Amino acid sequence: MNKTLQSLWAYFDERFQLRALADFAKKKTVPEHKHSFWYFFGGIALFLTALQIATGIMLLLYYTPTVDAAHESVQFIMSQVQFGWLIRSVHSWSANILVGILFIHMFSTFFMKAYRSPRELTWVTGFFLFVLFLAIGFSGYLLPWNELSYFATRVGTDIAGSLPVVGKGLKTFILGGPVVGQATLTRFFWLHVAILPLAAGVLIGIHVLLVQILGMSTPISLKGKPVKEISFFPDFIYKDVLGWTLILILIGILCVFLPWEVGKKADPFVATPLGIKPEWYFTFMFTTLKLIPSHIFSFEGEKLAILGFMLGGALWLLVPFLNRRASRELPSRPYTVIGAVLLLYIVVMTVLTYTIHGL
Amino acid sequence: MAKIRMAAGLVVGLLLLSGALLAQKNSCIECHSKLEDELKAPAEGFRLDVHQQFGLSCQDCHGGNPAQDDADKAKDKTFKGAPKRAQVPEFCARCHSDSAYIRNFNPRLRVDQLELYRTSRHGELLKKGDTKVAVCTDCHGVHGIQTAKHPKSLTFPWNIPQTCGRCHADANLMKAYKIPTDQLAEYKLSVHARALFEKKDMSAPACNSCHGNHGAVPPAVKSIAFVCRQCHPSTGDLFSKSPHKKAFDDMGFSECEACHGKHKILPPTDDMLGTGSGAVCVQCHEAGSKPFVMAGRMKQLIGDFGSEIEAARSLLDLAERKGVEVSDPKYRLQEIHTLLVSLRNQTHALDLPDLEQKAGEGKSLLVGVRASAEAALREAKLRRTGLVVATICLILFALAFYLKIRQMRRRPGA
Description:
The complex is a heterodimer of chains A (359) and B (414). Chain A is 69% helix and 3% strand. By secondary structure, chain A is mostly helical.
């Protein structure tokens, strides 16, 4: 280290106690075993979140959140702004990859029972982060104000509106009125760029802090067996960076060959085009609602399905508290089976969405 | 006392109810519903009839007393029965020519149908005693008549060709009149039929748009141009300014029909212009004549402009496929294409200098679009080059990290 850097380090160390942080990072170890590949998805999610924030801030320089100008501003970004196409495509592609990574991260945590005591709160914060990211995706989808996003939002909020008791009020609250319009765009923009990212930021802080305090969980199956430990810094971080670089290459290829399209400007007065679907990560719920019979016994099928999803979500959140065997470091096969069935259900429903004609 | 009041109320109520039921009674429908085939049809069809929707009933046209159960009593002295074919126009006109009566139901409905019908070819022949010609019921139906606004009505725009064709495409029926029967088949191939049937464009012409409704006659040679001008006024104006106008009038040619045909008016193509085998110009103009050369020049002008537009479109499509946003130049190209459409129309004026000037203006606009398309393609190339460079750098970076990780794995104590 040269003299200037040394003096800079000393300056900041005196003020921020950097030495303590460096010592913590050096001392911190991470278990390395045959399942440790799945650990990297959390880091990749964090990297993609940073990419989202960076590109999102840049898009804010040109995006205009009004129904008259939103679509035009996105078109301007894509065609006139230097590297605008790249920034927007990175934002959109990395958002979709991020949700996919979050699914993998969540299910790998579930299957490895990494949520067990004392990491229940890590799971709980992770669950809420997942919900927040879905909400960020949903709100961001409308912002280009194109035909697809407009009608998908209408379909999505109609589903929320069919909830028993609170549905009508909830839909009006989300839309800011009876239909998707300027009020909706304003509040979706506000949610997408301010409220939801702020909430996500706080939760990410707690989530990462918990990971640092509690360390990474070792699978129950490896209990009692010798598990190798590697240093968090630089060994684990280097591997993380390697993963981030590979993801970045993938995003670059997607952006150049499949830049995110602007689409046709939304026209509220035309009939809903055929085959309107929400974003892929909502399609398993969407297809369930489409395929469920209109009535099951004397209950409305759609409402029953929504209640089922809500109940399922609540149980998913409470898994660390329900799976008592895992907290006693004992194998819990039924939970693994439930997770596998759920994963299969999501995959099958998502595939059906894009294969059933006229859904 | 209360019981007496209640009983009296019950009796009055029953009397009122039976009176109301008696007033609604329609023995015509009741009896005809029990009959079969053509005697049952009036009762079946009338349920959907527009007259029924306006509160009219059987006796309003046919007389009689539907309140009577007995058929003989129902057919009292007011009973008129079904009119003979020759009497149908007057039969309908008893109401439809009475403005005071019609006003009660639809003040906007015309009352001159019979007057017009009498001027029609159908009306003229009927007057001469030919009962095979169309009368009101042939086009509107008998019972179950709907307004022309109802999509299932025989007179709804996209049903009209078939309604007319029921007689005019019937070779046996038309044999006596010595008129062709291919009008419907030819019309179905026309640009108008495509607009009406495929695009569901209600403003597209059907038979009645050119021949008239109740006063239907074949348009005379001189009036064809005026008929076409109802929808194509600018083309008509341009034609009127052209040297063709006087020549056609002198030779007794019908203006539009001479080049575009009658019922089988195909979508116009650039090949109709010029000196090729499909060109209509060569029907009259000899090779080497001044108009022949001019036709060739016009065709070349339009053809070149069209080809340049298509070339620019191909470039934009290619750039779009390569992922570059080109909606703005595509929009500008659409405007230039509109100019080409207007130039095609302009050929009817036979004003070559004007055509050349406008084509020149269009081509200069096209230069800008082409430049945008080429810039978009350069951008696509730049993006791919940038991706290759960035990917190589990132792979090298990843490789360096991978080697570093391997090196760390080999260090003692790792």
